[in-house]
Amino acid sequence: MALTIFILQLAVYILAFPIYLLNFLGLWNRICKIWFPRFLERFTATYNEQMASKKRELFSNLQEFVGSSGKLSLLELGCGTGANFKYYPPGCRVTCIDPNPNFEKFLIKSVAENRHVQFERFVVAAGENMHQVADGSVDAVVCTLVLCSVENQEQILQEVCRVLRPGGAFYFMEHVAAERSTWNYFWQQVLHPVWYLVFDGCTLTRETWKALERANFSKLKLQHLQAPLSWELLRPHIYGYAVK
């Protein structure tokens, strides 16, 4: 099986040679940072349609974590185009973090379309180092379709715990590796190297639930599901929330 995967990966490498050449020349990352937000705007619109019921379920108890200020203070990690804004409760104060500054104009559009949320600021930073956000300063952190592409999941989760107030919650919805005995996992392995390059570091084979189980949360509510998505490779999902 390993030999078959290697041969198919080699074939995919050959087909994707122009992208690898651009990457070797140091040009692909620049192109990807401009192209990816445009792609994600379209993708998340479709994703929200297909996952609307699960997102409503996921965020249904956000108000339970309102702190002493009386308004929910929320940090969205890897905010992208702001596709989650529509699911946040009225009056929610939102700070967004993303390492790609090219998302800002899409984020501003989403803010204009979701006047029920109070947008505070957009911070250009990686989730592994959110020093711009004070310790224990937010009621909730949200992270959807992000942990697949971060460099260090453990460090991200440490930062999440740092910025959350005691009793605050971390909400997540992520695509993950399929079960190892399935054809889906086979094709995830075959396509992973090229997928990672084309989709700005997205990893198809991450078992993200293991990092969440190891993190320092007092409570973890995590569910696996086969998401009703058009792209079969992305159907294996986890979603839920953890309490500090």
From TrEMBL:
Keywords assigned by UniProt, alphabetized: Membrane, Transmembrane, Transmembrane helix
Annotated TM spans: 6-28
CDD domains from the UniProt entry: AdoMet_MTases (cd02440)
UniProt key word Transmembrane helix: yes
Any one Gene Ontology molecular-function term assigned to this protein's record: S-adenosylmethionine-dependent methyltransferase activity
One Pfam family, short name: Methyltransf_11
Start and end residues of each Methyltransferase type domain: 75-172
Keyword Nuclease (UniProt): no
InterPro entries xrefs: Methyltransf_11, SAM-dependent_MTases_sf, Thiol_S-MT
PANTHER family: METHYLTRANSFERASE LIKE 7A1-RELATED, METHYLTRANSFERASE LIKE 7B
Entry protein name: Thiol methyltransferase 1A
Organism field: Equus asinus
Annotated gene: TMT1A
